[in-house]
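Hi U.,

Before I forget, here's the chain from the pilot set. I'm dumping it here mostly so it's searchable later in email.
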Amino acid sequence: MKKLLFLYFLSLCAIFTLTAQEHNRVKPLEFEAGFPERADLKPFEFEFGAGINFGKKWDEMNVEASTNFLFELRLNRPEPFDLGLQFKAGNFTHKIPDIVRMNSIFINPTLFFDYNKRFDEHTALFAGIGVGGSFIRNETYLCIDSYRGVKFDDHANHFAVTPRMGVFVMGRLRITAEYVFTARDYSHFNLNVGMIIGNSYKKKNYNGRYF
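Structure:
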């Protein structure tokens, strides 16, 4: 966990350093003359996506990678920051072959705060952190023999902190790596790919007016 947080901190430092260097550059003549450097980003966007979960190994139980699906509404204000409300649902599975299998189904509502380093209207780096909850349902199957088994369910609700970072490309795709820090047995890594709707810029004419 400490290594992940350290790498996350280094990545944030790198993004802020790039931003400082960008602001210190001399602007081209046309920008000094009053022409807009770029149009303003629209205030709201939506993201629909899916990804892969990698849970933690439990003692003798192996873990299988599984899928998740997400929806996020983001407010792109004040630039270069954004505020997002995400709902994600997925599962991961632990098992000892022919003995026990546990399928953990989770729903994670999370409020994210991100910093964005935009290179142009189609490309950006971002990093941020989210806080929320992790609501988990465990379905456990115990094997009695080759033909019989026992199933029982239980529930767990936990607070979660989720640092994330990623890249926005092609003006539509958002690739995100994140780690959900929650109760020890349920912390997991996600790699997600999302499609952005509404992430476009208001067009300006040479007088700086929107159209």
